[in-house]
Design brief:
Blueprint lengths: L3 E4 L9 H16 L3 E6 L9 H14 L8 E2 L4 H13 L3 E4 L3 H14 L24 E4 L6 E6 L3 E6 L7 E3 L7 H11 L4 E5 L3 H14 L5 E5 L2 E2 L15 H6 L4 H9 L13 H7 L10 E2 L2 H14 L2 H15 L11 H17 L3 H7 L1 H4 L8 H10 L6 H6 L6 H15 L3 H13 L7 H8 L1 H12 L6
Parallel strand pairs: 1-2, 2-3, 9-10, 11-12
Antiparallel strand pairs: 4-5, 5-8, 6-7
């Protein structure tokens, strides 16, 4: 048997972080077993489905590095097939026309609310002859679900889950306008696409019972099911935007690497001993459904940031610059940087990258720490840098002249000159380095000061220094 999984998002919004994890689990399981992962866009809700959402979902999957097999399947395009299946159930006596009016259904709801019980359709048209139907009413088609016994799902994550059939009513398969319901469409599509494993969020667990009943009515094999707990915030509450319930594209804009986000997502609810860092191949080799926990996973931005920092330190410098260029259209304008990078800035970034990536945890943080490379003269100093320079400006008097005399500009040569200057005025190196860093970068922290000076070059270093030392008193 070839393992076939599927990721089946509804295109009513972005690919959120929970959807990204579901796609990843489906992808890993298929890869682990030499199978296929299919992609189906469940666009039957025509009012809420949008082309922009479809584009966001496809782009998000590609950015995460999750590919799929074959063409994308669009559920709405298969409506005729769904209708055909509903009518076949009708012909076999496993479904029936229901002529209950909206008023009748509302009365059922009201009675259920009054009596404090769940709403269930009362089966009033289950055994009636359609000849009794009121004039002008277009019927729905309902499944003739079993009323006795149990419906059982042997879930790969949740274990054995049992529903009493008396608690499940006759669900609608085909609406009065001839369009299929979600329940029917999913079953027909999974069957026709030869899906062997349905891996999805545990908010679909009740759907599993209803869909199992449809499979059984059709005489089709039920795929294996695995319902994974949802992702919660660090406080244990349902994941919201303040916790990180953002679209995958938002994480790209926030400066996360796809490899880091993928590694973080695989560890949300799944474990493999104490291992935290996984290469893609290691994930594929180790992934199994039995190691998914039953409790909700908790999203933790701090862990994601630390993991992202690890991947940034391991990344090739050119790859990081390419990743920065990808997000510049979204974050570059406020920093005065266009995309693609101009050659001079690209060269400086490449030279500075070893120092920059050691400290930063996101690409945005890295770009901000590289402010000194793209800042326009005269530099605007942040509050801490302005304070450091104010306190130490007098200790920088004369250092520009010493640096002017350097013939071979390098981190080593400028360090020697700054040390010599500090000794000459009788202070520690840091008492010169701190205000010097502030003058050259506009910030209180930066990569190594002498590396910064080497990357800036002699001319730019002296121009920035003189901008800030105008009217400086003698030491």
């Amino acid at each position: 048997m070839t393992v076939v999984t599927r990721f089946a998002p509804s295109p009513t919004g972005f690919l959120h972080i929970g959807g990204g994890r579901t796609a990843l689990f489906n992808w890993l399981y298929a890869k682990r077993h030499g199978g296929k992962m299919l992609l189906r866009i469940e666009d039957t809700d025509r009012e809420r489905s949008t082309d922009a959402a479809i584009t966001a979902i496809l782009d998000g999957l590609k950015w995460l590095g999750l590919d799929w097999d074959g063409d994308v399947v669009y559920q709405f395009s298969r409506a005729a097939r769904h209708k055909e299946v509903a009518e076949s159930l009708l012909a076999q006596g496993r479904a029936y026309y229901c002529y209950a009016s909206q008023q009748e259904l509302e009365e059922m709801r009201e009675a259920a609310r009054r009596e404090g019980r769940p709403l269930r359709y009362d089966g009033r048209w289950r055994d009636r002859d359609p000849s009794e139907a009121p004039e002008g009413v277009k019927p729905v088609i309902r499944l003739k679900a079993p009323t006795e016994g149990e419906t059982i799902v042997e879930d790969e994550v949740q274990g054995r889950v049992v529903w009493q059939n008396k608690d499940l009513d006759d669900l609608v398969l085909l609406r009065s306008d001839g369009t299929p319901t979600y329940m029917l469409a999913v079953v027909v599509d999974d069957h026709d696409m030869d899906v062997t494993h349905v891996i999805r969020g545990d908010d679909h667990l009740t759907n599993a019972a209803r869909q199992t009943q449809i499979y059984q009515a059709l005489g089709w094999s039920v795929p294996k099911m695995a319902h994974i707990p949802l992702i919660h915030g660090p406080d244990g509450a349902k994941l919201s935007k303040r916790h990180g319930a953002l679209g995958v594209e938002a994480y790209r804009s926030l400066g996360y690497l796809p490899t880091a986000l993928r590694n973080y997502l695989v560890r949300l609810g799944w474990s493999h001993g104490d291992q935290e860092i996984f290469s893609t191949q290691e994930m594929i080799d180790a992934f199994d459904l039995g190691s998914i926990g039953r409790s909700p996973a908790r999203f933790d931005f701090a862990k994601l940031e630390n993991l992202n920092g690890h991947y940034m330190r391991q990344a090739n410098d050119e790859d990081l610059i390419a990743a920065i260029e990808e997000i510049l259209p979204e974050i570059g304008d406020e920093r005065g940087i266009g995309a693609p990078l101009v050659p001079a800035l690209r060269e400086k970034l490449t030279a500075a990258m070893p120092g920059l990536k050691e400290r930063a945890k996101t690409l945005v943080e890295l770009l901000d720490s590289a402010y000194y490379l793209y800042a326009q003269r005269p530099l605007r100093l942040d509050e801490k840098a302005a304070s450091l320079l104010s306190d130490g400006r007098s200790r920088l008097a004369g250092v520009a002249e010493r640096l002017e005399a350097v013939s071979e500009w390098s981190a080593q040569s400028v360090e020697a000159v700054v040390r010599e200057h500090a000794e000459a005025i009788g202070v520690k190196l840091g008492q010169v380095a701190q205000p010097l860093r502030a003058a050259l970068t506009g910030r209180a922290t930066s990569p190594g000061l002498f590396d910064v000076m080497a990357v800036l070059g002699k001319e730019e270093t002296l121009l920035r220094l003189r901008d800030q030392l105008k009217d400086a008193p003698a030491a």
